[in-house]
Amino acid sequence: MASPASVVAVLRTTPDRVLADYARLMELAGVTSALRPGATTIIKDNISWHYPFPGANTTPWQLEGSIMALRAAGFDDLVCVQNKTVVINAFKGEDLNLYVPIFRHYGIPVSYNFKPADMQWVQFRPAAPLLVLDRIPPLHPHMDPRDSGRFAPDSEGDSPGDFRRNGRYHSRKRTRPPHHDARGQERHPGQCGPGGH
């Protein structure tokens, strides 16, 4: 069976109609033929850096326009899934990029793929042979080689918040002084914010 052809929809927009244009883009791209309205639909924003950079991160109007368009098309079961990487803080990113008020306004629950209470990782075993992908080892020194999607803390108890700088890995130790998030609340590295996230 042949795969359906990819569709790319492009519109020129203006600030006063950008939200409505997302509905038009999804209609042009055939969102209802690609996704089932009755299924849970994951909204995955892009936080390449936790500070607002419109060329790198999902902008608030992209997020809100997409939510509005999906809801208008009958997608009622929406959930956002955030992930942790070695260079961003998901909590800081969703706050500083102004996603939190949008999630609250539209009643979008947020799950974190690094919180066991939100979801559990399972090992993926391909159903068909792959050329190379299944033989690539994890690239991060603290990743458990048995599960390329999870971090394993080292023997010193470092958090998975290690990052690469100047060609070497440095660890953010839990002994660092606390910092304050955008709400002014004190947080320690690796600590979740209010409400468990």
Secondary-structure map:
Layout: H1 18-29, H2 31-34, E1 41-43, H3 60-72, E2 78-82, H4 90-96, H5 100-106, E3 110-112, E4 163-165, E5 168-170, E6 179-180, E7 186-187
Parallel strand pairs: 1-2, 2-3
Antiparallel strand pairs: 4-5, 6-7
Structure write-up:
This protein starts with 17 loop residues before the first helix and ends in a 10-residue tail after the last strand. Helix 1 (18-29) crosses helix 3. The chain has helices at 18-29, 31-34, 60-72, 90-96, 100-106; strands at residues 41-43, 78-82, 110-112, 163-165, 168-170, 179-180, 186-187. The chain has a 3-stranded parallel β-sheet with strand order 1-2-3, with helices on one face. A two-stranded antiparallel ribbon has the order 4-5. A two-stranded antiparallel ribbon has the order 6-7. It is α/β, with parallel strands linked by helices. It folds into 2 domains: 8-116, no CATH class; 132-182, no CATH class.
